[in-house]
Amino acid sequence: MAIFSSAGETERQPGSMGARFVILTWHSIRVLDNTPAENDLIAFSDNLALLDRLGWTILPLSDALRRLATGDLPERSVVLTLDDGSIMDFHDFEHPTCGPQESIYNRLRAFAQSPAIGPRHRVHASTFVIASPEAREELDRKTTLDLGVWPDDWWSAANASGLMSIESHSWDHNHDALARTAQRDNRRGDFKLIDTPAECRAEIDQASDYIEHRAGRRPRFLAYPYGQASDYLVNDYLPRHAGNLGLEAALGCEPAPVTAGSNRWMLPRYVCGHDWTSDQELERLLNEAAPKLTASTITG
Fold it and tell me: What's the rounded Cα separation, in Å, for the pair 188 and 34?
């Protein structure tokens, strides 16, 4: 079986129990009403119950990657991720139109402590945060009614919880709502435009440094804003510099399972609200993504 190397190349390894795993993504900031289709917090709880009922095994991202490489990944393995890093990742929140919202962390903890779930899980979610405090403050003013949804004072507690890890979603997301970003020509709303060494240092290196300072742990993973990245960032900058940065992999948003042939610097994942909006759609997605062949029949 072919297992990807740190540079996205492949090397030969023995066959595995499971030849692929699935990464799922939610945005806790996406609260439009109190139905699963329009509220990622509610969907998250429903989706956790579905994953357990269908026999999927929840693993931390680092474990899933390691076990894929060493050949002992359980069949039907799934990784949980969160993007943007709103306060609702960790703290309950009084939403101005939708009322009280239970946080992802509290929902995850309740699931982990439930006697009804199977013992196979290693319950954990990777939360990818926007690093720049100035960008988060500006986004709060411009996009979320100045409600204070982008603080970073919870990051260290999340890391210490054992149920979450704080990872990087870049410095400023090259977000189109910001007046100025790290992009050299101030062209915003497209992360593929981050394609020079200086821009990559500003968006990737600077973010890792700040997150380590505020969260007490250096990020091990990067999720590209909008799921986008330039060829230079994916194929040159990260393969050459990730070791010094402490990064082990980067995630996009192509809707596909992670396999032995996946590029470590552009791992695929599925996004709630885009790739599924109901438990029925998620179940269909999972069935399509599940391993179809036994380990002994899979070759690189």
Answer: 32
Q: What pTM, to 2 d.p., does this model score? A: 0.92
CA-based end-to-end distance of the chain: 4
In the chain, what are the domains? Answer: 2-297 (3.20.20.370)
pLDDT tens per residue, range 197-248: 999 999 999 999 999 999 999 999 999 999 999 999 999 999 999 999 999 9
Phi first, then psi, for residue 126 (nearest 5°) are -95, 125
Helix (H, G, I), strand (E, B) or coil at 17: coil
pLDDT at 118: 80
SS3 101: strand
Q: Where are the alpha helices (DSSP H) in the chain?
A: 40-53, 61-70, 104-113, 133-143, 155-160, 197-200, 206-215, 231-232, 238-245, 279-289
Check if the beta carbon of residue 17 is closer than 8 Å to that of residue 295: yes
